[in-house]
């Protein structure tokens, strides 16, 4: 183990990982260097038990050695394009990428002392990270504002159109009208329902049926356009995107997943999917959109374009930007990125994430998409304080949120697994249309399911005041009440309130069931808003119940002393907010970031304790019923190679128990440092599908020299044949520092020491597996070689560890494959 750690120290200072970069051989993906996943069947079997290739943009030129060794022989005058780059569906080498960046910084620092020009370049390099964050914030904020405005307009388009200008939504259309009353402020001459336009009136069964049919038709049209665009142009634009982003941030390569086509199609189809009325939200996909912006803008800056680890720092900040513009919560966005999605989050990334989230929130505020001078649609302020006794119902809401979260995860994963393994997965367009039709048909009769989910949450969060004409606020009027500002005392519920309770109860059941089958379809679909809607409905129902209980029983012991007659004791909107946090926490298992997001939504620090109590209770209950959150469950379902930090490894096994080859396997494929010809190396590559090979002194000694990647060897040999005369199949391949003299009639030899990693990470065969797992997690390793007294025994890859952990958990180890 000590030896392995020494190898890491050597690698971190390895001057062989030079900072000069090369363009990829696959130029078609020049701005889509991050990958695609959704909607495609991906086969990970080609890498067998040796993992991903690395991307050393560095000078892998064959003329340089490692650690400053003397020049061997100039076989190639220029660096080889493609050597050291990463193949699709492979993992980056975090240690090498960080070493490359340190070498680059060291070179810039040394040159900055030589001239003013290099000093200016050094300042520009230091400033480029902040400039990139500024651009990411501006672009993400502008896109989010456009998405919000478009989704609001298209949602209202299902019910009618504005005659004054078809581009106005219902609210904006009626703002400037002088003919509508305060009680009916949503009704104005400029806004016409489809029934009014087609048959001339809006009352009666025929008008109702006409509006009903047009509502369903618009919903089907929007969803059909969304799924068709996703299927035709960007299969990776579907879903939430957060499970894949977590996997990418852990070091995995998924080309095209954060590319320009994905950004374009996801932005358009997100508007269509939200407007169709499906039980989904735009908040999760906005994280994907922001990460696409970050990835694309990285190509403007060399140090981020050529270093995958540096790019992932930008993507971590972009994830924070996505939550910032989704909820209007910049601080919550930074904490969300830190707590939920990021794998590597240094301190400077924290500062830059904060700056980017600030810029994005400012941009969104400048656009003012909701017309209320707020960053979010459901911004509310409560006027009454909460009492200690109310912690009991808040905890009950937390229990409900935990149970709902565990139920939803199991039901959704079961449905998604059925979608993958049955005929249902072969007809994504039909599935989306059927679910949309069912949703629209069932949603229209109930006003609380007909409205958009964001408007529903806004309605449920609302604290009833003097100016509210909502059905939820239609309490019975009582005489001689004392008014204080815009607040009203607790009053008996009227007929409309009881009607609203029944409608909300039906809406709760509907939302709980339809969200299970909606999340995971081949359209952009977020889970934040549907989960919050379920909790907000449950919380509002409980809040009204508590309010009426306190009104009719204010002489009970639990209400004495703080809830006197005529006082505003209970705030049902607060219960809705706590319930929303509880259900979202039960589904995602977020804690700190969720509380901060929720209090940024409401603007009040006074309600942090109820939110904390409900969120922690929700997490405890949900963890007791199932350890995984929804994103971790989807990562496991899709077979992404992601080592979860939260998952503990407690079994007593050793490295020798996990390594390959096993006793029944053929010997490990290796390359000797000076005993093989080009033909023998090519035959070894052709006969295996491994991604890399250990280099040993000889087959007999098995003394480890280094590790070389399959892709680097193939590219180097092909390039040498094209650009150097005399390289044939019988040419000898050397990985040694010095080359022995060759007889005159022998063809020229090929020196490949420059592409070999001289400091591969190693552990001994008796290293405990819990230590190995920690090393893989904390260093982001792809593979680790196992030795005994310096003699190579085998190899452990990230996939081997994931398979072993799956076996321990009584899961199918073959599920650790892309599906």
TrEMBL record:
<dbReference type="Pfam" id="PF00654">
    <property type="entry name" value="Voltage_CLC"/>
</dbReference>
<feature type="transmembrane region" description="Helical">
    <location>
        <begin position="423"/>
        <end position="444"/>
    </location>
</feature>
<feature type="transmembrane region" description="Helical">
    <location>
        <begin position="258"/>
        <end position="280"/>
    </location>
</feature>
<dbReference type="GO" id="GO:0005794">
    <property type="term" value="C:Golgi apparatus"/>
</dbReference>
<keyword id="KW-0547">Nucleotide-binding</keyword>
<feature type="transmembrane region" description="Helical">
    <location>
        <begin position="314"/>
        <end position="338"/>
    </location>
</feature>
<feature type="transmembrane region" description="Helical">
    <location>
        <begin position="500"/>
        <end position="521"/>
    </location>
</feature>
<feature type="transmembrane region" description="Helical">
    <location>
        <begin position="388"/>
        <end position="411"/>
    </location>
</feature>
<dbReference type="GO" id="GO:0005247">
    <property type="term" value="F:voltage-gated chloride channel activity"/>
</dbReference>
<feature type="transmembrane region" description="Helical">
    <location>
        <begin position="127"/>
        <end position="147"/>
    </location>
</feature>
<dbReference type="GO" id="GO:0015297">
    <property type="term" value="F:antiporter activity"/>
</dbReference>
<keyword id="KW-1133">Transmembrane helix</keyword>
<dbReference type="GO" id="GO:0005886">
    <property type="term" value="C:plasma membrane"/>
</dbReference>
<keyword id="KW-0472">Membrane</keyword>
<keyword id="KW-0967">Endosome</keyword>
<dbReference type="InterPro" id="IPR000644">
    <property type="entry name" value="CBS_dom"/>
</dbReference>
<keyword id="KW-0406">Ion transport</keyword>
<feature type="domain" description="CBS">
    <location>
        <begin position="756"/>
        <end position="813"/>
    </location>
</feature>
<dbReference type="GO" id="GO:0005524">
    <property type="term" value="F:ATP binding"/>
</dbReference>
<feature type="transmembrane region" description="Helical">
    <location>
        <begin position="212"/>
        <end position="237"/>
    </location>
</feature>
<comment type="similarity">
    <text>Belongs to the chloride channel (TC 2.A.49) family.</text>
</comment>
<keyword id="KW-0813">Transport</keyword>
<dbReference type="Pfam" id="PF00571">
    <property type="entry name" value="CBS"/>
</dbReference>
<dbReference type="InterPro" id="IPR001807">
    <property type="entry name" value="ClC"/>
</dbReference>
<feature type="transmembrane region" description="Helical">
    <location>
        <begin position="527"/>
        <end position="546"/>
    </location>
</feature>
<keyword id="KW-0067">ATP-binding</keyword>
<dbReference type="InterPro" id="IPR046342">
    <property type="entry name" value="CBS_dom_sf"/>
</dbReference>
<feature type="transmembrane region" description="Helical">
    <location>
        <begin position="286"/>
        <end position="302"/>
    </location>
</feature>
<keyword id="KW-0050">Antiport</keyword>
<dbReference type="InterPro" id="IPR014743">
    <property type="entry name" value="Cl-channel_core"/>
</dbReference>
<dbReference type="GO" id="GO:0005769">
    <property type="term" value="C:early endosome"/>
</dbReference>
<keyword id="KW-0677">Repeat</keyword>
<dbReference type="GO" id="GO:0008021">
    <property type="term" value="C:synaptic vesicle"/>
</dbReference>
<keyword id="KW-0868">Chloride</keyword>
<dbReference type="GO" id="GO:0010008">
    <property type="term" value="C:endosome membrane"/>
</dbReference>
<feature type="domain" description="CBS">
    <location>
        <begin position="659"/>
        <end position="725"/>
    </location>
</feature>
<keyword id="KW-0129">CBS domain</keyword>
<protein>
    <recommendedName>
        <fullName>Chloride channel protein</fullName>
    </recommendedName>
</protein>
<keyword id="KW-0812">Transmembrane</keyword>
């Amino acid at each position: 183990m000590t030896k392995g750690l020494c190898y890491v120290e050597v690698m971190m200072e390895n001057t062989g990982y030079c900072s000069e970069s090369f363009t990829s051989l696959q130029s078609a993906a020049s701005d889509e260097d991050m990958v695609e996943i959704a909607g495609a069947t991906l086969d990970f079997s080609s890498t067998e038990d040796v993992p991903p290739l690395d991307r050393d943009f560095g000078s892998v030129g064959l003329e340089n050695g490692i650690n400053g060794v003397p020049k061997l022989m100039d076989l190639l005058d220029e660096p080889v394009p493609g050597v050291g780059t990463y193949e699709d569906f492979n993992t980056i080498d975090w240690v090498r990428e960080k070493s490359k960046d340190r070498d680059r910084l060291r070179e810039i620092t040394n040159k900055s002392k030589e001239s003013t020009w290099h000093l200016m370049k050094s300042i520009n390099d230091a400033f480029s990270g902040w400039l990139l964050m500024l651009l990411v914030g501006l672009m993400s904020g502008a896109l989010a504002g456009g998405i919000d405005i478009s989704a609001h307009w298209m949602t209202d388009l299902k019910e009618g159109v504005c005659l004054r200008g078809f581009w106005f939504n219902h609210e904006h259309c009626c703002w400037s009208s002088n003919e509508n009353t305060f009680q009916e402020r949503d009704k104005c001459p400029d806004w016409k329902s489809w029934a009014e336009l087609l048959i001339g009136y809006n009352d009666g069964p025929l008008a109702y049926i006409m509006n009903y049919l047009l509502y369903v038709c618009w919903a089907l049209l929007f969803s059909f356009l969304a799924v068709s665009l996703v299927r035709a142009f960007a299969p990776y634009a579907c879903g939430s995107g957060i499970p894949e982003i977590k996997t990418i941030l852990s070091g995995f390569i998924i080309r095209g997943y954060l590319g320009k086509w994905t950004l374009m199609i996801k932005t358009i189809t997100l508007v269509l999917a939200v407007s169709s009325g499906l039980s989904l939200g735009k908040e999760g996909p906005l994280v994907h959109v922001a990460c696409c912006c970050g990835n694309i803008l990285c190509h403007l800056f060399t140090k981020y374009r050529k270093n995958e680890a540096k790019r992932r720092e930008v993507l971590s900040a972009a994830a924070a930007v996505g939550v910032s513009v989704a909820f209007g919560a910049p601080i919550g966005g930074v904490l969300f990125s830190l707590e939920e999605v990021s794998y590597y989050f240094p301190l400077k990334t924290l500062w830059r994430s904060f700056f980017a989230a600030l810029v994005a929130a400012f941009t969104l505020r400048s656009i003012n998409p909701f017309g209320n001078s707020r960053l979010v649609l459901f911004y509310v302020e409560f006027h009454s304080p909460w009492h200690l006794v109310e912690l009991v119902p808040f905890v009950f809401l937390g229990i409900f949120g935990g149970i709902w979260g565990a139920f939803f995860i199991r039901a959704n994963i079961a449905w998604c697994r059925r979608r993958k393994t049955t005929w249902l997965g072969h007809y994504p367009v039909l599935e989306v249309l059927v679910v949309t039709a069912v949703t629209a048909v069932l949603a229209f009769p109930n006003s609380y399911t007909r409205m958009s989910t964001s408007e529903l949450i806004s309605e449920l969060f609302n604290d009833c005041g003097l100016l509210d004409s909502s059905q939820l606020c239609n309490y019975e009027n009582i005489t001689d009440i004392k008014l204080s500002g815009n607040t009203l005392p607790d009053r008996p519920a009227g007929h409309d309130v009881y009607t609203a309770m029944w409608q909300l109860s039906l809406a709760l059941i509907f939302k709980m069931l339809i969200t299970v089958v909606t999340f995971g379809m081949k359209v952009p679909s977020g889970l934040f808003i549907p989960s919050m809607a379920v909790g907000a409905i449950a919380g509002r129902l409980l809040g009204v119940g508590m309010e009426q209980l306190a009104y009719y029983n204010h002489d009970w012991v639990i209400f004495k002393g703080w809830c006197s007659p005529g006082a505003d004791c209970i705030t049902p909107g607060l219960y809705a907010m706590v319930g929303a946090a509880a259900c979202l926490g039960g589904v995602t298992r977020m804690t700190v970031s969720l509380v901060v997001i929720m209090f940024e939504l409401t603007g009040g620090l006074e309600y942090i304790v109820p939110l904390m109590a409900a969120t922690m209770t929700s997490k405890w209950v949900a963890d007791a019923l199932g350890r995984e959150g929804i994103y971790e469950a989807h990562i496991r379902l899709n077979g992404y190679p992601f080592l979860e930090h939260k998952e503990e490894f407690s079994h007593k096994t050793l490295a020798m128990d996990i390594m390959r080859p096993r006793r029944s396997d053929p010997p490990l494929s290796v390359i000797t440092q000076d005993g093989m010809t080009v033909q023998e190396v090519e035959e070894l590559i052709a006969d295996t599908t491994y991604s890399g090979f250990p280099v040993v002194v000889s087959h007999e000694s098995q003394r480890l020299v280094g590790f070389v990647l399959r892709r680097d060897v193939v590219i180097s040999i092909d390039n040498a044949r094209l650009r150097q005369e005399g390289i044939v199949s019988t040419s000898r391949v050397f990985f040694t520092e010095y080359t022995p003299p060759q007889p005159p009639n022998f063809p020229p030899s090929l020196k490949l020491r420059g592409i070999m990693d001289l400091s591969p990470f190693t552990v001994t065969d008796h290293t405990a597996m819990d230590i190995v797992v920690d090393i893989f997690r904390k260093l982001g390793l792809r593979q680790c070689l196992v030795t005994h007294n310096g003699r190579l025994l085998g190899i452990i890859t990230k996939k081997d560890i994931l398979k072993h952990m799956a076996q321990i958990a009584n899961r199918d180890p073959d599920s650790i494959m892309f599906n």
